[in-house]
Write a structure and sequence with these properties.
Elements lengths: L1 H25 L4 H12 L9 E6 L1 H7 L7 H11 L9 E4 L9 H12 L4 E15 L5 E12 L3 H6 L1 E4 L12 E3 L1 E3 L5 E3 L1 H12 L15 E3 L11 E3 H6 L11 E6 L7 E4 L2 E7 H14 L4 E2 L2 H19 L4 H24 L2 E2 L4 H32 L5 H8 L9 E15 L1 H5 L4 H21 L3 E6 L2 E6 L8 H27 L4 E17 L4 E6 L1 H12 L4 E5 H7 L3 E5 L15 E7 L4
Parallel strand pairs: 1-10, 1-11, 2-3, 2-11, 3-5, 14-15, 19-21
Antiparallel strand pairs: 3-4, 6-9, 7-8, 12-13, 16-18, 16-19, 17-18, 19-20, 21-23, 22-23
Helix pairs in contact: 1-10, 4-5, 7-9, 10-11, 10-12, 11-12, 12-13, 15-16
Amino acid sequence: MKGREINWRRMLTILAVAGGLTLLAGLGALDRPDRAASDALYQQTDAFDGDIVVVGIDQRALEEIGPYDQWGRDVMAQVLEALNQSEDCRPAVIGLDVLYAGETDASQDAWLAEAAGEYGNVVTACAAGFGSELVPDGAGDYALNAEAVVAFEDAYPGLRAATGRAHINAMMDTDGILRHHMLTLRLPDGEEIPSLALEAARRYRAYWGEEPIELPRVNGRGFWYLPFSGLPGDIEERSVAEVLSGEVPAEYFAGKVVLIGPYAVGLQDSYLTAIDHAKPMYGVEYHANAVQALLRGSYKLEAGRTAQLAVLFLLLVLALAGSWRRSVKLSTGLWVLLAGGWLALAKGLYEMGWVVHVLWVPVGVTIVYGGGLAVNYIQAAAERRRVTSTFKRYVAPEIVNELLKEGSKALELGGEEREIAVLFVDVRGFTAMSEKLEPAEVVEILNSYLTLIADCILRNGGTLDKFIGDAAMAFWGAPLEQEDYVLRAARAAMDMVEGAGELSEDLMRRFGRTVSFGIGIHVGKAVVGNVGSPKRMDYTAIGDTVNTASRLEANAPKGTVYISRETADALGDLIEKEPLPELLKVKNKERGLEVFKLLGIKKKA
């Protein structure tokens, strides 16, 4: 039941964390950095086709012709005439990224309309203004439309009648970056007006007798993701001044898409774009990039937000489940696999025509990875404290360090059968002595002997199981396996005998009293582990091996170490021993025990 409860709690924790991170992504917490990362990963330069040319109202034109606000419409009429010199020498389409709204000078207006309409290859600009507006919702009520067309500017009637019409709206995302293109503009009366890029691409295809443009899929707002072909300044640009002076002959523009528009800083028609967040791109360049994408059919469809959130949630669950209480090496490998793999997958999907959020998964799994490291560190530190506090009183420091590698497993209730050497030691004559001394003196003497016992056990790598009044129990071979566990027990016993002699001299001098040890050692199988309850447990050994060692100690005279036949056989010729003349009869044993006195450990051992 406890294991099931832990699994359920773990599952709920994983689902809660994954759900929380997914919710943050869904609420837009990562949108701004994600857009920047997506732009860096996806937007790559690709050379423009030579059939798209920008004729710029650039600095040279402003210097030679004069300030733009003083230009008459006759200037553009002359540019169109220079480009359209004859039916056999004209551009496939000329797109004006300049808004000629309202009538000004009648003669100039007429001239521009006549020049634009001569060969039917000119597309003039219109533009809409957007704002919030209450519109009927179809159910007898009104709803707020945050992107309603609240203003509209069109070319003056004469020009509009002589040319095609297209909108030049360029709408940035909420982070101020231009990365989408409005394919068509829907007016309040239902009329749909194509973008300048779309109309230019259509006319180019028609001029050359090619298949019509296959339209990209747009989102609910009528936009599609624009893969830019070049950086600001990459598109071929010729100055209006060059066209008017004849420096660039009309034949150069024949059969091409020619876009005419502002190409100078002071004209305030530039935007930061997805392909370059630092250097602004002129609006006419933006339209050129859109024309290039439409002609190539290189469309990218943005994957649905809901579907991407579902994928994010599943991958976060995988990351959490895979790194839960795992090693740093494994967690790091999983993090690199998911984060790096997602970036590679995103790039691959983009090449296949899909746009996905670049940062959602890497940031999510990075948070999981970092949080997992922090949690694992805190838990490991807590476990180290628990293991240390539990075992440091019983075993040598080097054994505690080894147990720390097992973590909380070392603290779980339960045990396992192990081959161990068990030692019991008792202070002989202590009860009689305690009746003749002051309580404080009794405690001091007892502490001196028990300190000696503990030091001898821990120095030889043993586990001090418990103190039982003036006696103690210890064992070797657990919790860690030891090749020489029997020899270690024997050495501890002999250290106690030797130390008792030195301690006795000191106590005799101070209190006029002395005591000595009786020790028993037996080797065999026993169940070793944590016994008790989760709130109070002891690490101990139980079984007949323990009982036999206790019986040997109970029968050992003072200053004597009794070892069983099994112990003697395990030590072989490493020790000096002396057999007892008769089998030792002990409680709860039908047959007597063959017992030896341990006299010493040979130096070669």
